[in-house]
Design brief:
Layout (H helix, E strand, L loop, with lengths): L26 E6 L5 E5 L3 H4 L5 E3 L9 E6 L4 E11 L2 E7 L9 E5 L6 E10 L5 E7 L2 E2 L2 H7 L14 H6 L23 H9 L3 E2 L3 E2 L3 H4 L15 E4 L2 H13 L4 E4 L1 H10 L8 E4 L14 E5 L6 H10 L1 H13 L10 E5 L1 H7 L1
Length: 358
């Protein structure tokens, strides 16, 4: 299949620049992958669509302040997006301008508002996929993620056209995020959940068991290859807590209750970790879920609306079939649903059964 098979028309006005006024205030398009039936609902009504006893699996990763503003020698501007820690003070990063920030070059990390120098960045080496190994120091002291959080900025996606605000600091994190992690994008389906909504699901017998995928380029890097077979996902690490792993293994072996993946990152973690008998607790994955893929884990998926020609819309098309995915997205556009990180959501029911039927 070609990348262009997954194109669709999306008015720019539907790209959400800010979240709904209340965290659980988004709209919800419910799509049955088996029958094609579609219903218009809201996130607050999610418990209505979820069967009692469902095992809900969100991604509780923390989004780091991974975007650094740089001042190069001579005064030119630059930027670094830290993707993951490699060693003490060293990180894998995207840097720009890449032609200027080659191995051996240094730059100041600065406060973009005041120009104050906050740390020093050194480009140490080239890495695959156009990335760089960089080191960060303040004086002689290497910086870790905790220090980066103090000097960096929240890495809002490029289609959100404002600088991070105090509101973004809260709303671009899930309400249940862990204290650790190194995500450079939010697991956006989880952004809709309040403690009250989670409590409602638990009150009707649902189980809430997080996993953690450290969201990086594998989730949001655009496809550039013409054919899907030529696209290689960037590696992302995942961790599954023991209590979650035990609940998942019991559920997947016995199939005694439905499993809802809260977000594509959770679904990709589950599919990468489960081998049909046991669940890996920690590993890394490049999994690319596309049409023809047979789901082994989640019965249902809650997800936001995604970019045309993106790996995430390809994933949605794998679960629904390309024709139904295109029709559902066209309906969402016609109905004025809001797209992407701060937008509305889609609940895909019976996804595993549909992929098994192919």
């Amino acid at each position: 299949m070609k990348r262009t098979d997954f194109s669709f028309s999306l008015p720019e006005a539907l790209i959400a620049q800010h979240p709904a006024e209340e965290r659980d205030g988004a709209r919800l398009l419910v799509v049955d992958a088996l029958t094609g039936e579609r219903h218009h609902s809201t996130i607050r009504e999610l418990p209505r669509w979820i069967e009692s006893g469902t095992l809900c699996v969100p991604n509780d990763v923390k989004v780091r302040h991974a975007r650094l503003h740089l001042r190069r020698a001579g005064g030119g501007a630059g930027e670094a997006l830290l993707l993951r820690a490699l060693a003490e003070g060293a990180f894998e990063a995207m840097v720009r301008p890449g032609v200027k920030l080659r191995p051996g070059k240094e730059a100041d990390v600065v406060n973009p508002s005041t120009g104050e120098t906050l740390a020093r960045l050194t480009v140490e080496a080239n890495l695959p996929e156009g990335l760089r190994r960089v080191s960060l120091h303040r004086g002689e002291a290497p910086l870790d993620w905790e220090e980066v959080d103090r000097i960096g900025r929240l890495p809002l996606p490029p289609y959100i056209h404002h600088d991070p605000s105090e509101s973004d600091e809260t709303r671009y994190q899930t309400s249940f995020h862990a204290a650790s992690g190194e995500a450079v994008a939010a697991p956006t389906a989880g952004l809709h959940f309040t403690p009250e909504l989670i409590g409602q699901l638990q009150a009707q017998g649902c189980d809430w068991r997080p996993v953690r995928l450290h969201v990086g380029l594998g989730t949001f890097r655009p496809m550039t290859a013409e054919h899907l077979d030529e696209h290689v996902m960037h590696e992302e690490r995942f961790e599954i807590p023991e209590s979650t792993a035990e609940a998942l293994e019991t559920t997947l072996r016995q199939r005694n209750r439905p499993l809802l993946a809260v977000g594509t990152t959770s679904l990709r973690t589950l599919e990468a970790a489960w081998n049909g008998e046991t669940l890996r607790r920690t590993d890394a994955t490049r999994i690319f879920i596309r049409p023809g893929y047979r789901l082994r884990t989640a019965d249902h998926l809650l997800t936001n609306f995604h970019l045309p020609e993106s790996t995430l819309f390809v994933l949605v098309s794998a679960l629904l079939g390309l024709d139904l995915a295109q029709r559902a997205y066209a309906e969402a556009v016609d109905a004025g649903y809001r797209f992407f990180s701060y937008g509305d959501a889609m609940l895909i029911l019976n996804a595993r059964k549909r992929t098994e039927a192919d």
